[in-house]
Amino acid sequence: MKQRRPDEHSVLQRIYAHFAGAKQNIAGSAVHVGIGDDTALFRPKSGHETILTCDWFLEGTHFLREKHSPDSVGWKCLARGISDVAAMGGVPRCFLLSLALPESHTDRWLDAFLGGLRRASRKFDCTLAGGDSTQRREILINLTIVGEIRNGRAVLRSGARAGEIIYVTGRLGEAELGLRMLRSRNGPVRPSNPPLKKHLYPEPRLALGQWLAEKGLATSMMDLSDGLSSDLPRLCAASGVGALVESTKLPVVQLSSTDRQHRLDPLQLALHGGDDYELLFTVRPRRVNMLPKTLHGVPLTAIGRITEQRGLVLLKQEGRERQLHPGGWDPFRSKR
Q: N or C: which terminus of the chain carries fewer CB neighbours within 10 A?
């Protein structure tokens, strides 16, 4: 029997089937009307501001069809967008999915992708509220995420001041190491070690961002998606300041003997590696003692300080200073 060719209706029905539970949960969520209507209706909580962010996740740019499993693509496309909500100190509420994919991927690939997306949706309590689908030769994914935060509590990039201490969460360069491991293997793989897991299934620091916002400890904050050397200058530019980073304080990855044989440098991975989705934030010196060394199992590390003089300076182990230029991910010049 000849199999019926897919059409947009069948693709949408497949998506709806995977998120059927979302309709049952709408009554207790911020989504008043969800998938299946012309638009979604979002009901923000009283006394809260709405957070809006959108993110592309493109085949050949952000993931490789022959390397990344569809389950990990589904998880990561939502997790990386939710990381922006975490960087404001907010709570994700719902998302819209726009999906373009070839006819050959509307069956098993789509089911596996939706499985990963559904798991991330449940993990981060972020409901699918609607979206759009179309056919295209390559896979293109765009997510719009809606979140909330109490009025006046959002942590912006523009609040850093000279003398404040710069902090990062987690370990830097781990996801970049995971990508290099993935590229060296044949075919899709499942995570078997921390670097691979962090690259394929990142965990946005939601609880940590919310805690920093609620306590009023972070004066500025953003997530690390493109690498410290590229993201820290953006925070500094928004705040009109500079920064000094101490190389010996960076929480770098531990390299295996094989990694060292390939001449990988943990400092370079920490400075320029992307996809970590950790938080970068600043704290007033007098409030540093209010920060624990770890929170929710995630280490918090002081790596430098904000300076009046513009520019990013790296203090090396031997005490020498040098200008640090952006060397992280840039879609207009970087290649996977």
A: N
The CA distance from 148 to 129, in Å, is 15
Its CATH class, for the domain covering 8-150, is alpha beta
How far is the C-alpha of 190 from the C-alpha of 196, rounded, in Å?
8
Confidence check: pLDDT of 5 > 60: yes
The listed CATH number (3.90.650.10, 3.30.460.40, 3.40.50.620, 3.40.50.10470) that belongs to domain 157-323:
3.90.650.10
Rounded CA separation 224/301 (Å): 14
Structure tokens at 320: 């020498």
Average pLDDT over residues 284-311: 97
pLDDT above 80: residue 33: no
The torsion angle over the Cα atoms of residues 256, 261, 267 and 268, rounded to 10 degrees, is: -130
**Spatial distance between the Cα atoms of 35 and 176, rounded to a whole number of angstroms:** 36
Angle at 305 between CA 176 and CA 222, to 5 degrees: 50
